[in-house]
Amino acid sequence: MATLDEKLMEDLKGAMRAHDERRVSAIRMVRNAIKNAEIDKRGPLDEVAAAEILAREVRVRREAIEEARKAGRADVVEKEEAGLAIVLQYLPEQLSREEIAAEARKVIGEVGARGPTDRGKVMGKLMPLLRGKAEGRLVNEVVSELLTR
Fold first, then answer.
1. DSSP string covering 1-21, please?
2. 121-124: which pairs have CB atoms within 8 A and are 24 or more residues apart?
3. In the CATH scheme, what architecture does the domain 4-88 have?
4. For 15, which of 4, 20, 91, 138 could close a Cys bridge (C-beta 3.0–4.6 Å)?
5. How far apart are alpha carbons 49 and 28 in whole angstroms?
6. Cα torsion for 11, 12, 16, 18, to the nearest 10°?
7. What is the H or E stretch that residue 43 is in?
8. What is d(CA 61, CA 90) in angstroms, rounded to the nearest whole number?
9. Burial class for 55, CB neighbours closer than 10 Å (0-12, 13-18, 19+)
């Protein structure tokens, strides 16, 4: 299986040949974000860290879409949604809400969490397990629901 960087490079070349400017732009943005993270780390990223970068790019694009909708900028919404669809293709399959809840229940049992005040303990142990597999906001939402029951 090709690494994420190899796949991005291969797809970038294909998009350039096809003169698909949106795809070229989105892939370049993702590659630049990964390269910047590698420079900051002073070494190559593993697949999980690269997936976190992709998740951050997805989050940024979703926020941009939301802001553009509020501002009534349909052109920006369309552009960002197209870019989001491209970036989502490279993101590893994300866990479903039910899968997150199952993992959260295990951790809640392990740490002996009793209520909402124990959310920090649960999140501290759960997030490293779900790193790159689930969006933090969703994990927080699920944990909060489980602890308030």
1. ---HHHHHHHHHHHHHHTT-H
2. 122/147
3. Orthogonal Bundle (1.10)
4. 20
5. 18
6. 20
7. none
8. 14
9. buried
Contact 53, 94 (CB under 8 A): no
Give DSSP secondary structure letters for 81-141: HHHHHHHHTTSPPPPPHHHHHHHHHHHHHHHT--SGGGHHHHHHHHHHHHTTTS-HHHHHH
Q: Are 140 and 97 in contact (CB under 8 A)?
A: no
Amino acid symbol at 101 = A
CA–CA gap between residue 17 and residue 80 (Å, rounded): 22
Q: Write the CATH number of the domain with boundaries 97-148.
A: 1.10.10.410
Domain locations along the chain: 4-88, 97-148
Mean pLDDT, all residues of the chain? 90
Look up residue 148 and give its two tokens.
């308030």
What local confidence, expressed as pLDDT, does residue 2 receive? Answer: 62
